[in-house]
Amino acid sequence: MSSPSAVTSNPRLPAQKHGWRWWITRILLGLLALIVTVAIGVLVTGAIAKAWLWAAYPAPGQLVDVGGYKLHIACQGSGAGPTVILEAGTGATSLDWALVQPQVSTFAKVCSYDRAGIGWSDASPKPRSIPIMVAELHALLERTKLKGPFVLVGHSIGGIVSRQYAALYPSEVTGLVLVDSAYENQFRRYPEPVVTSTARAVQQLRMLETLIALGIPALLPSLAPLESRLPKPSAEAYRALMTSNPKHIAAGRGEIEELLLGDTKPVTTLGKLPLVVLSRGHPDPGMFDSSVTPEVVAQSERVWTQMQLELMALSSRGKRIVAQKSGHSIHLDQPELVIGAIREVLNAQH
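Predicted structure:
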């Protein structure tokens, strides 16, 4: 007969005491602890990576308070004539003008800036509506003490901001260059598949915001796209800004949502204001997702062309130039056309 001590030392007793559910619970708790530890590690290292990227690319211009938050503006050049203000496209930074601004600075004072939330500018507590963007630009120019009148150069949604500014403050604007400008109510005129595709893109941007907030893209910034048409330092700075702070994507998303709403009343006339409308020669590849057929893209381009003609007709001195070798970003595809249009509008002052 076995002794009591032999029974006590039986290695099967712990398994009999706790059971298989106890062991599975212990394993699952261990896995959960591992996942939590890894997640905390990713968040901590991601936060460090975001901070490092942001610090590595300081603002090249000045930060100006426009009412509790600051906007970034960078100026170059000089001259007795009007100051040129460069207004970037949807979600784009002042870096977008790297091929245009240095050349314009040889014959005029020229400033590029970042709308609220974009690039080096602080996020705004206000919605990303066109009237608010116009008000923020007006506050920026006033507090920077730049002397008007101005020649405004606007790409995409920046064209709407520039046009609305010129209509609201006509005494401050002496000329306008619209670079493949968006139109206030364009999504009310586009085919439905284009509207649906753009709305899906907004949801994808929300997901990207979350990933950037977690710091994941900052850990692998080289995986983010690099704009090959920009000078390499500008392209790298843009990528760092985009991956180091979700405010950039959030502001860009807000601007697209504003375009989708289309609530801003279009400008009806610019009088005799010198105006050059630069229009793309072809759509960009991948402008919409695969649900948008080539036939719908062609239909959308016809709508876009009609809107560009309407923009030209806003002024009795309006002129339209088609950039045959360019997609939506004419200032990157054919910057010489933008530079020439700016010079033409400046010369129209004499």
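Summary: The chain is about 50% helix and 15% strand.
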